[in-house]
Amino acid sequence: MKSKKSFLKMAFRFTIGKKIGTGFGVLLFCVVVVFYTTYQTLNASIEINEEITTVNNPTVASLEELKLLTVRSKMLISNWIYQQSQADDPEKQKLNRISSRDYPFLKKRIKELAIHWSEKDRKKIKAVFVNLDELFELHEEVKMLLPDWVSYEDSQSKFLANFMVGEGGDINLKTNEILFQLNDLIANQKFQSDEVTATMLTSFSFLKQLFRILGIALVVGGVLIALFTTRTIVKPIYRLKHILLDLSRGVFPTKKLKERSDEIGEMTNALNRLVLGLKSTKDFANDVGSGQFSTNYEPLSSEDELGHALLKMRVDLAENERVLEQKVVERTAEVVKQKEEIEVQNEKISELYTEVTDSIKYAKRLQEAILPPDELVKNILPNSFVLYKPKDIVSGDFYWMGEKNGKTYFAAVDCTGHGVPGAFMSIVGYNALNNALTQFDTPATILDSLNKEISQTLHRNSSGATTKDGMDLALCSYDAKTKKLEYAGAFNPLYLIRNNDVEQIKADKFPIGSYFDDEPKTYTNHVIQLEKDDYIYVFSDGYADQFGGPKGKKFMYKQFRDCLLGLVGKTMSKQRDHLDSTVETWKGPLEQVDDILVIGMHIS
């Protein structure tokens, strides 16, 4: 009994194929109904349209033409009587053509069309033709009474002719009877044509309504089928897919999937069995991983490669654990020994770092000792400022000042490198500047002497076996009495701001430390007559080369010049503070790339 129920259940399963087939079958049926109805309606419309085109419209047109011909014949026969003329008069010829050519041709065409008429209308048109034949016979009688110009002089003939055409005459009565019959026929044919047209329009309206209803039905049916397919096929498959993806990531489902009686149900059952098997394998792997090597585990089948591999892993891990415990004991002793050695090394490194830091700090004090004190700067350059921002503890940039023969000398010097190497170079440069000042007066000759002395100090020979050490600087001498400024520069220019315009006094393009006996170079001495409210600036390249801003680019010399122009009218202390805050804002979170040095002076 149970097997019979199972067989019936299998036989009447509503499988995915049956679901899809049923849905598309309904859609196909609707499409067939629409196609068949459309085909029938179009065929009927074609027949109706052909009837209107070939019968109704030509019939009405021909009857209207016959009516017009009758009216014209009445007019022409009246003219025949009342207008005396010859037999070959054009108007008389027209009347003759109507009876001999036009009427027979039209009569033949109407008879051909009348084949498609009703029996009643065919009898009516036959009566019309009889009356027309009689009418044209009466016309012939009139023509015989008045055949030529002379016959109009016969009063009796003219009287008889007038009587036939006049009110109550045979021709007049016959013509009116024919027109009445034609009007009745025309009205009847128009009515039939309107009926046929209305029938065609009704069929089109029905087809349009059917299209609308079936269109809505197809859309609604399609949506329902799509929803049904989504709920019964797509969504379950997506759930199975997500579970498989979770399993591929090692995540197990929290709930058991609901069973079904179709192919998806079979996949669900298989997946449930897979999940149970994997959970059992996972639990065993967890126990083995936690060191519980006595846990019982049976592989899912004789072909379960993972299960057999886990059993082998349990045996191997038990042995490895025993070996590792022994190694841990040995390695622990070794690590303890290495830790003690590292601690000893750390103590040595700490001591060395302290010594190096102390040495650098001492070097900083030495370097600060060679820099002009603030009091000296205020005394010899009272209306000036110095912005000095080393990159490291000690700096490769330094500023130098001195006095001789009533003149004040000041320089902004940028030595090769920064930090400790730059600091050593700054001491060498400081001593060389002091020596040169004792021997020479103009900035150019001082730089020539400085170049030679630095080259001899740093370069071993003149054959090119050199180091790249040296310095760039701008050196000025200022006579406060005459307001005359002399300037010479090695790569570093001088900026003169006068009348809100920046003038750049260019430096020579070779650094201090590039002197050789076989090709000596000399520096240019620039003499500038200063005026009241002039501003003088000398500097190193650190300010313009600082990276920052919204795009992390260099500050650049153009922006530096614009910044200096914006300081015109401010005091020297405010200029220094503004330059300091500007470069700090520009730098932002970025690192300072080089030592920064700017010296400014105002001529009051």
In terms of per-residue confidence, which ranges show pLDDT below 50 for 5 or more consecutive residues? 460-466
Helices, by number, come to 13
The CATH class name of the largest domain reads: Alpha Beta
Architecture of the largest domain in CATH? 4-Layer Sandwich
- Kindly report the oligomeric state of this protein: single chain
Largest sheet: 5 strands, antiparallel
Overall mean confidence score, pLDDT: 82
**Number of DSSP-assigned strands:** 12
Q: Count structural domains.
A: 3
- Fourth CATH level, the homologous superfamily of the largest domain: PPM-type phosphatase domain
CATH topology of the largest domain: Phosphatase 2c, domain 1
Major β-sheet strand ordering: 1-12-9-6-7
Principal-axes shape call:
elongated
* Fraction in beta strands: 5-15%
- Share of helix, binned: 55-70%
Q: Report the span from N to C terminus.
A: 122 Å
Write the element-wise H/E pattern from the N-terminal end onward.
HHHHHHHHHEEEHHEEEEEEEEHHE
- Secondary-structure content class: alpha+beta
In angstroms, what is the radius of gyration? Answer: 61 Å
Keywords: Hydrolase, Membrane, Transmembrane, Transmembrane helix
Transmembrane segments: 20-39, 210-234
GO cellular component, one term: membrane
Domain HAMP: 231-283
Please characterize this protein's 3D structure.
- With about 600 residues, this protein is of the alpha+beta class.
- The protein folds into 3 domains: about 15-220, Up-down Bundle (Four Helix Bundle (Hemerythrin (Met), subunit A)), CATH 1.20.120; about 295-370; about 375-600, PPM-type phosphatase domain (Phosphatase 2c, domain 1), CATH 3.60.40.10.
- About 65% of the residues lie in helices and about 10% in strands.
- The chain has 13 helices and 12 strands.
- The protein has helices spanning about 1-10, 15-80, 90-115, 120-145, 155-165, 170-250, 265-290, 305-370, 375-380, 420-440, 445-460, 555-565, 570-585; strands spanning about 385-390, 395-405, 405-415, 470-480, 485-490, 495-500, 500-505, 525-530, 535-540, 545-550, 555, 595-600.
- The strands form 3 sheets. Strands 1-12-9-6-7 form a 5-stranded antiparallel sheet, covered by helices on one side. It has a 5-stranded antiparallel sheet with strand order 2-3-4-5-8. A two-stranded antiparallel sheet has the order 10-11.
- The longest helix is centred in the middle third of the chain and has 79 residues, at about 170-250.
- It comes from Vicingus serpentipes.
- Keywords: Hydrolase, Membrane, Transmembrane, Transmembrane helix.
- This is SpoIIE family protein phosphatase.
- One of its GO terms (molecular function) is phosphatase activity.
